[in-house]
C-alpha cells in the first residue's frame, strides 16, 4: 500500500540548545549543567567548563541560525523543534528578572522561522538545568525549583505565546530514572542518590509540568502543551510468563510519567513501587490539584526497543541509558542501539490506545560515523544507511496512521549534525546536513548537504508518498 499521511502533517527536524547553539558565555548566558559534562553521561562532571567540552561551541547555531534555518526551509520543513536554554534567559535559574539579550536571540530565531513559514515547536527544558540550581539546590530534589521553572515558563509564554503554538515541558522526563544529573539537574552522584530524593525530584518535575500546562492554557487557550517521553517498547525475551511480567514491569517505569501527564494522578502500580522502596512522597493538596492539569498531546523519542527477562544472568544492552536485554532477532547500530522499525508502530498504537491523546514523534534517527566525500565535485555524505533507516521507520509510521493513530507530526533528531547527549561526541552524526567539526574540536564549521537531504526533501514534498515498503 502507499503510505498516506494526513493533510497538514508536521514534517521537520529536532535539536537542543546545549547540543548545537554553542556561545555558552555570550550575551549574558549563565552556565548550565551541560557546560560541566564534557563526556556526556559516560563520565562524572567537572568542576568548571573545560576546553574538551564540544558543547561550548556546538555547531555555532547561535551565530549561524539564519543560514541553518534557510537550509531547513530548502528541505521543506513544516516545523522545527528547538529548545530554549534556561540559563540564557535566567542565568542562575533563580534570578528575579530575565536576561533580555537571551530573549532577543530567540526572537531572532522565530523571525527566521516565520520568514520561511516554519512552525516552531519549543522545548522549555531539554537537559539544560542552570548550573547554579544544581549546585545550590541539588536540582529537582528541591521543591523551590517548581517556582523557578514556573517563572521561567511564564516569561516564555508571555514573550513568545503569540508566535509559538506547540510547547514541550521537559525533554524525555522519564530519563531522570537513569540519568539524574542530565534529566534532573541533580549533582548528587547516582550511586549515592536515595530513592526518596529521586522520587521526590520526579514528583517536583511532574507538578511543575502540570502547573505550567495550566498556566499556558490560562494565558492563551490556543496553546498546545505536550509531555515528552523516551519511548522504548520492551518485549519479553521468551514466552515464559515471568519474562512477560518482567517486560510489563519495565514498561510501567516509562508509562508512569505518561499516565500522570494524561490522567492527572499517580497510577496504582507506581504507588506500589513507592511503598516497596520505602518512599513517602511529600505531596500537598495543591500538588494533587496541579497534577489534574493534563497535557494536550504526547510527544516522544524513539530509537530502540529492548527485551526483558526475569532471569538475573541475562546481559543488559549497551548504548542506551535505559538498559534492557538485547533482542537476538535485531541488528544494532554502531553505538549498540538495536534497530526496530516495527517497534515504532507498536509504540504509536500502544500510546494511542492507552491515552487517547494526539501523538507527536519528536525524535527518531540514526547516529552513524559519516564520511565527507566528493561526488561530481561537490562535498557530500553518501548516507544510504540513514535513508534506509528513516524510510523503514516512516513506512511503519504510515502503517500506524492507517491503524487509526492520531499523529501530529514527525521531527528527525539532529536534523543538522550536533553534539551527542550521551557521549558528547560529534562523530555520532544524525543530520541531513554535515557540519565540519570533529571530536578533537577541529574543523571549519562549514555545512554540506548529505544525500539524505534531498531524500527527506522529497518525502516532505510528497507528504510521505515517496516512501517504499
Shape: globular
Number of helical segments with 4 or more residues: 14
Number of domains: 1
For CATH, the homologous superfamily is named as Glycosidases
Kindly identify the CATH topology: TIM Barrel
Q: Encode the helix/strand succession as letters.
A: EHHEHHEHHEHHEEHHHEEHEEEHEEEH
Count of strand segments:
14
Report the sheet-strand fraction.
5-15%
Strand order of the largest sheet: 1-2-3-4-5-7-9-12
Pfam family, one: Glyco_hydro_1
Family: Belongs to the glycosyl hydrolase 1 family.
Protein name: Glycoside hydrolase family 1 protein
Organism: Kocuria soli
How would you summarize the topology of this molecule?
Layout: E1 10-14, H1 17-20, H2 61-75, E2 79-83, H3 86-89, H4 100-115, E3 119-125, H5 131-137, H6 144-160, E4 166-170, H7 180-184, H8 195-219, E5 224-231, E6 234-236, H9 241-263, H10 268-276, H11 285-291, E7 297-302, E8 306-308, H12 341-355, E9 359-363, E10 373-375, E11 378-380, H13 384-403, E12 407-413, E13 433-435, E14 447-449, H14 451-461
Parallel strand pairs: 1-2, 1-12, 2-3, 3-4, 4-5, 5-7, 6-8, 7-9, 9-12
Antiparallel strand pairs: 10-11, 13-14
Helix pairs in contact: 2-4, 6-8, 8-11, 12-13
Task: Characterise the protein shown here.
The chain is α/β, with parallel strands linked by helices. The chain has one domain (10-461): Glycosidases (TIM Barrel, Alpha-Beta Barrel), CATH 3.20.20. It contains 14 helices and 14 strands. The chain has helices spanning 17-20, 61-75, 86-89, 100-115, 131-137, 144-160, 180-184, 195-219, 241-263, 268-276, 285-291, 341-355, 384-403, 451-461, and strands spanning 10-14, 79-83, 119-125, 166-170, 224-231, 234-236, 297-302, 306-308, 359-363, 373-375, 378-380, 407-413, 433-435, 447-449. Strands 1-2-3-4-5-7-9-12 form an eight-stranded parallel beta barrel, surrounded by four helices. It has a two-stranded parallel sheet with strand order 6-8. Strands 10-11 form a two-stranded antiparallel ribbon. β10 and β11 (378-380) form a beta hairpin. α2 (61-75) packs parallel to α4, α6 (144-160) packs parallel to α8 and α8 (195-219) packs across α11 (285-291). The longest helix is centred in the middle third of the chain and has 25 residues, at 195-219. 50% of the residues are buried. Keywords: Glycosidase, Hydrolase. Belongs to the glycosyl hydrolase 1 family. The active site is at 363 (nucleophile).
Amino acid at each position: 500500500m502507499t503510505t498516506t499521511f494526513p493533510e497538514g502533517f508536521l514534517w521537520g527536524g529536532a535539536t537542543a540548545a546545549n547540543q548545537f547553539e554553542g556561545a555558552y558565555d555570550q550575551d549574558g548566558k549563565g552556565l548550565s549543567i551541560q557546560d560541566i559534562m564534557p563526556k556526556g553521561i559516560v563520565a562524572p562532571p567537572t568542576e568548571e567548563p573545560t576546553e574538551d567540552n564540544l558543547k561550548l561551541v556546538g555547531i555555532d547555531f547561535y551565530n549561524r541560525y539564519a543560514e541553518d534555518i534557510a537550509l531547513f526551509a530548502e528541505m521543506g520543513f513544516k516545523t522545527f523543534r528547538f529548545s530554549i536554554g534556561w540559563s540564557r534567559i535566567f542565568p542562575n535559574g533563580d534570578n528575579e528578572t530575565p536576561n533580555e539579550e537571551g530573549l532577543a536571540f530567540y526572537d531572532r530565531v522565530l523571525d527566521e522561522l516565520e520568514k520561511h513559514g516554519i512552525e516552531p515547536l519549543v522545548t522549555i527544558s531539554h537537559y539544560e538545568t542552570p548550573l547554579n540550581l544544581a549546585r545550590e539546590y541539588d536540582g529537582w530534589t528541591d521543591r523551590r525549583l517548581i517556582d523557578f521553572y514556573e517563572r521561567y515558563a511564564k516569561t516564555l509564554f508571555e514573550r513568545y505565546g503569540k508566535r509559538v503554538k506547540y510547547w514541550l515541558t521537559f525533554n524525555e522526563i522519564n530519563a531522570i530514572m537513569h540519568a539524574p544529573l542530565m534529566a534532573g539537574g541533580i549533582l548528587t552522584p547516582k550511586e549515592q542518590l536515595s530513592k526518596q530524593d529521586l522520587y521526590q525530584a520526579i514528583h517536583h518535575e511532574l507538578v511543575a509540568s502540570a502547573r505550567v500546562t495550566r498556566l499556558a492554557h490560562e494565558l492563551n487557550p490556543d496553546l498546545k502543551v505536550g509531555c515528552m517521553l523516551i519511548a522504548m517498547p520492551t518485549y519479553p525475551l521468551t514466552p515464559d510468563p515471568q519474562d512477560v511480567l518482567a517486560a510489563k514491569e519495565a514498561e510501567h517505569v516509562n508509562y508512569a510519567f505518561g499516565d500522570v501527564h494524561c490522567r492527572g494522578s499517580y497510577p496504582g502500580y507506581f504507588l506500589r513501587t513507592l511503598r516497596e522502596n520505602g518512599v513517602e512522597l511529600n505531596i500537598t493538596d495543591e500538588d494533587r490539584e496541579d497534577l489534574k492539569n493534563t497535557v494536550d498531546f504526547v510527544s516522544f523519542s524513539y530509537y530502540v526497543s529492548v527485551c526483558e527477562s526475569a532471569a538475573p544472568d541475562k546481559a543488559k544492552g549497551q548504548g542506551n541509558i535505559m538498559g534492557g536485554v538485547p533482542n537476538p532477532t535485531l541488528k544494532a547500530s554502531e553505538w549498540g542501539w538495536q534497530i526496530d522499525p516495527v517497534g515504532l508502530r507498536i509504540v504509536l498504537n500502544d500510546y494511542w490506545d492507552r491515552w487517547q491523546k494526539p501523538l507527536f514523534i519528536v525524535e527518531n534517527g540514526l547516529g552513524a560515523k559519516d564520511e565527507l566525500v566528493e561526488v561530481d565535485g561537490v562535498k557530500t555524505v553518501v548516507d544510504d544507511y540513514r535513508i534506509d533507516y528513516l524510510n523503514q521507520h516512516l513506512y511503519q509510521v504510515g502503517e500506524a496512521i492507517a491503524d487509526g493513530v492520531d499523529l501530529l507530526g514527525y521531527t528527525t533528531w539532529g536534523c543538522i549534525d550536533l553534539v551527542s547527549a550521551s557521549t558528547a561526541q560529534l562523530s555520532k552524526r544524525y543530520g541531513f546536513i554535515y557540519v565540519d567539526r570533529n571530536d578533537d574540536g577541529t574543523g571549519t564549521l562549514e555545512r554540506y548537504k548529505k544525500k539524505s537531504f534531498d531524500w527527506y526533501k522529497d518525502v516532505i514534498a510528497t507528504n510521505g508518498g515517496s516512501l517504499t515498503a
